Amino acid sequence: MKIIGVIPARYKSSRFPGKPLADICGRPMIWWVYQQAKKVRELSRVIVATDDARIEDACKQYGMEVVMTSDRHATGTDRVAEVAGRIEGDLFVNIQGDEPVIPPEMIRELIGVFDDESVSFGTLKEEITDEAEIRALSTVKVVTDVNGDALYFSRHVIPSNSKDGPRARVFRHVGLYAYKREFLSWFAAAPQTELELGEGIEPLRAMENGFKVRVRETHYRSVGVDLPEHIQTVEKILQGENK
Q: Which residues, including other chains, have CB under 8 Å from residue 18's CB and lie 6 or more apart?
């Protein structure tokens, strides 16, 4: 199986414009993400997919493979689907461009989901216990069935644990995806759905159309950069690793 890692990267961001090019320890953030992905031996290629010439120029400057894509994509998955339509591969891994310290082991865990040949779309989850994170609308939660397939994704608390008695565990959705090529072809052609738009969560497009989404629990954790103030946290981690 030929596996391609794709890092979607947009310059426009309402909360942090130009985020992929934000300076982290003297290099743009997208460079750090790329280096982490390159540590995954299972990936035949790692490609940055962008719609902005500034990001393209930075990638070329630092020797990163990059492709220009449309500026009309609704989601990162749609951008990866364009890459899959142009580049040979069997499995495509969507690696978030704002995860500069993502553990390579997380990517390997996700690839392992496809040991089950019936899986066409996979992602990860992580148990959370902090009440503030559980209730935060910025944290996407997921519930799964006994086979590990998603039942629903929401920004609200699921399960609600509103009854007295034993509490069900709550899992945060980890925004790392992988898909078979033929699934991406379908996804790119399918219109966005009511639940996808209502929740702002792209796997719901697949689920509303009857596709299963396999979710594996991970015990690794990454640190995302959503706002400029998060860079300091990431730099401390990188400086600690390089001591």
A: 11, 54
